[in-house]
Amino acid sequence: MRAACGYAGRYMPKEKNKTKRNWMKETIYILFMTISLIGLQSCNTDNKYQPMELIGKIGKFNAKILLNSNGDKYRGSFVYTDLEKPEIKLEGVKEGEILILREFNENNDLKGIFEGNFKNGDYEGYWRSPENGEKVSFSFSTNESTPEPKREIESNPNQRNLASLNPKELIKTHFSPFKFGDSKSAFYRKENETFEVNFEKIEKYKVGNNEYALVFFSSYEFDENYGRNESHAASGIISIAKYREKSGKWELIKFKDECECGYGDWGNVNLPKLKKYGDYHFLISESGSLHQGFYQSYFSICNTDDFNASAKLVTSASNSGALPENGEELEYDSEISFENKDRQLLMKVRYNGNDYDYSTKKAIDMNKTDVYYFDKKKLKFKK
What we know:
By secondary structure, the chain is mainly beta. It is built from 3 helices and 27 strands.
């Protein structure tokens, strides 16, 4: 098509008699001119509707918007540049200087609305949820030099270990604190509630030649009059950021607030432990609950890709002090082991003892072994 654009209109054949040969030449000429005109229209259309790239931030996250316009109608996509999330489809209209873009998921359900002033390549306003009305500010621009670059946290060049990362800077990167308590704690607001956040620890590991760091934070509901909320279980929240080392800098590749890894109770958190099984790294947490003499313990294993639970098991139980009606006791525990078999990671759970079926009011023999395999695509353990 580039050749057609360049040479359209330059081909001017000489007039000849209307012989069969001349008729063929004129036919070829007409076809050539038709293709040339189509090529010119295509070139003009491509220039007119070149996609527009807006770069900036939504909340505390770097992102970009790709748009195509047709009059006052807009279509495009939104994508986070630092987080491993899929592109989001956008559709909208512009009325005066106000651009409204609606965000849809893969099922074409409305999940969010961008609304703001769009003038001279700058797009500023608020994203809001149609479900609960939550608002998040955004600012985008076609000028690539205006937005902040991808956030990198430099380590001390004379001390390359992870302890040289600054906890205060890490808190500022992932939260929006309005006040610091000390160098490792601060206060922020979310959904009209105040939370206290603390930097907890950094765990590092390697996959091949790549070095990764997991940064752990704990958050608690906070009342400025009464302090940390310790009135109910699960009042502690665990958040995790994942970084990759690149050329002496730590580059953010994933952040998740309120992770399933670990657990919180009565104003405290129990952080998960990083362990390697086979070729994979996991976050392991073990917890227990006691209610009216009935005790259960749990084993949770979360992956380090999206920080979601890959498996959660009840590993032991006892009803000492809370016997069933017929007096039968239940008591069992389990042993968990991992092994690689034919390049497949397996988790074996060996149960010992007996459980109790309250529907039949009979004891159940728990002496068995369950085998799970790790589905590396869905990041889940399955039987």
